[in-house]
Every structure is written in C-alpha cells, then in structure tokens.
Amino acid sequence: MLQPTPLVIVTTVLVLVTFAIEAARMTRMLRRMRVLLLAILLVYGWSTPGLYLWSGGFSPTREGLWLGFLQVVRLVGVLTSLQWLLRSLAREAMFGGIYLLAAPLGLLGVNRQRWALRMTLTMDFAERLLAERQDWRALWAHISQPLDRAWLEPMDVTLQIRPLSVPQRALLMLLLVLIVLTLVFFHQILP
C-alpha cells in the first residue's frame, strides 16, 4: 500500500533496526535469498517495456529496473517482518495461531489438527536441516537419501491453542470484509 518513496524508507529503517538486533539472522536470510532477489531484478529489468539504458539488443529498461527494485524492496520488507515475527513468537504459539487461522479449512473437509501437526513437523525438520552448515549440493544429497533412525524418533509436539481476543476477531472480520470488497470490485471492473 505504500508509495515507492515511503516504502523504501520504511523498509530501510526496518532492515537497519533488524540488522542492529539480529545481524547474524538477517545476514543468513539475505544470503539465502540473494539469487531470488537478483532474479527478480533481472526479470523485471529485461522484460518490462520502457526506455532502454543503452543502445543495443540486450539492454534493460529504466522502468523495468525500477519496478524490479521495488519488488525486491517489498520482498525484503516482508522477510524482515517475518524475522520479527519468528523472533517474538515461540514456535508453539506460532503454530497455535496457524491452527486457529486454518479454521476455514474445516469447511473444505481438511483436518486442521493433522494439518497443523504436519506443518509443525515440516518446519521443525527444515529448521534442523538448515541449522547444519552445508552447501546446496550437500543439502540436496542429504534430502535425496532415505532418513536415518535419528530423524524418525518420536517427538512431543504441543499446540498452544488460545481463543482469539475481541480485537483479533475484529481484525479478522475486517480482513474478511476487505477481501470480499476487493473481489466484488474486481468482478465489477473486469468483463
């Protein structure tokens, strides 16, 4: 929702504050995302019509690089906000929240307890796997091999399910109304 200048300023401040508090975690996150961020910039730069930066057949456009830069800033802002969420919530509280937010999946016949448990176990497995320092080839080889017994040991998982407070319920209702209004608006403007 932010225009480009406030977006860049807010994201820069958020990243700097997060670097001051959690430099190692931010560095690790940005290092893992560097290829995706560069790919976004390149795709926008070379596929968006506009004014070419130099003459020749293989030149990016000024508008494309600007739009790619804005997408990169948005993604870094979202990832930095996610770092704050992961820092402030215990894993059990986060998955308890996911369990509560998955209530509409019950209307589709999805067992949300099983879904939340699978999400918890998957995140735990990914966290343990990424905690080991290894390059992508070793990580791929590790994923491709069958699991050893240590990974198959039973583990206790608890979901802390707390009822939603009145402000949380109001926020969810507001989000639902905004989603419905957005869908109605787009339905009216699209043929």
From TrEMBL:
Q: Which superkingdom?
A: Bacteria
Q: Which controlled-vocabulary keywords does the entry list?
A: Membrane, Transmembrane, Transmembrane helix
**Which positions, given as ranges, span the membrane?**
6-23, 35-54, 93-110, 170-190
This protein is called what?
Cobalt transport protein
